[in-house]
Amino acid sequence: MSDNFPILRSVMYVPGTDPEKIVKALTSQADGIILDLEDSTAPNSKVVARGHIVEAVERGNFGHRTVIVRCNALSTEWGPEDLRQVAAVGPHAILAPKVNSERDVRAYLAAMKAAPPQTELWVMAETVTCFNGNLPRIAAIGSEPSSRLTTLVMGTNDIKKEMRALDAPGREPLQFALAQVVIAARDNKLLVIDGVYNKFVRKDKSEDENKAIAAGFEAECKQGHYFGFDGKTLIHPSQIGIANNTFRPSAAEVARDQKIIDIFDLPENIGKGVVAAPWGGMLEAAIHLAQAERTVAINGRIQEIEALFAKNTNG
């Protein structure tokens, strides 16, 4: 994973209760895997699930995938021990749920002191308290020197529940929160991942029903991409392909941005802050060139990932 351009188009939740699902997920095309000890794990299974997840992280062999563990909240009876054991084995990141304030984030950072330096902290933005003025201060911790906080994850189901909002086309009740979390992330140079889509293609559904589900999921991925999210959290392997295809630069975008880079590389444009675009208008180095370089770099990294996956799949 590139430090400058981590690829997190598809980040799939996997219950810690099922070792077989964990193994399958760690051979999938998902860019990230969240091994979950929280919402998808029943209270009477949490200790056993913790053991499965610790073993999986210790085994390693993640390939290109970023592996994250979502622990139970520190305020629960399982949370402190989750943090202690998970921090000791050092996944790529620990995901903190139900974060309300800056104080909560600092409590997680303190609980992660034993984790290897490269283990990041990801934070769920999913409570009304978080969004009621606290989110900017939470995200600002990511701007502190040597901070582990790198990523915000939108928890759409929980915030919708706390708002008592209804399902609606285009996620209208959540659009203010979606914009807020992206703005807070970008203001502090954090990555930001969209929430889950609650339906997935199933064998017990008709062809028409599954087409509608896939179309709905793709539309929500596109909406998240438009808002500026880096990727989407998933609940099923059938969602991976659509997320990966949506949260990647198109061939046209890559060609356009490579052309922008080439324009700034012309001898007469070296060092210039603003140049004329051949198709009309002006190009600014601080905006257009920076965006173009990021797009081309992300596309290159995705091509590397896909080539590596194809090689490993084909033996």
Helix content percent band:
40-55%
> What structural class do you assign from the helix and strand content?
alpha/beta
**CATH C-level label of the largest domain:** Alpha Beta
Q: Spans with pLDDT under 50 lasting ≥5 residues?
A: none
Proportion of residues in β-strands: 5-15%
Task: Kindly give the count of domains.
Answer: 2
**Going by CATH, what is the homologous superfamily of the largest domain?**
Phosphoenolpyruvate-binding domains
From the coordinates shown, what is the CATH architecture of the largest domain?
A: Alpha-Beta Barrel
**CATH-defined topology of the largest domain:** TIM Barrel
Describe the structure concisely for a colleague.
The protein has helices spanning 19-25, 46-59, 79-89, 102-111, 128-140, 156-163, 175-187, 207-227, 240-246, 251-265, 285-313, and strands at residues 10-15, 32-36, 66-70, 93-96, 120-125, 149-154, 191-194, 231-234, 274-276, 282-284.
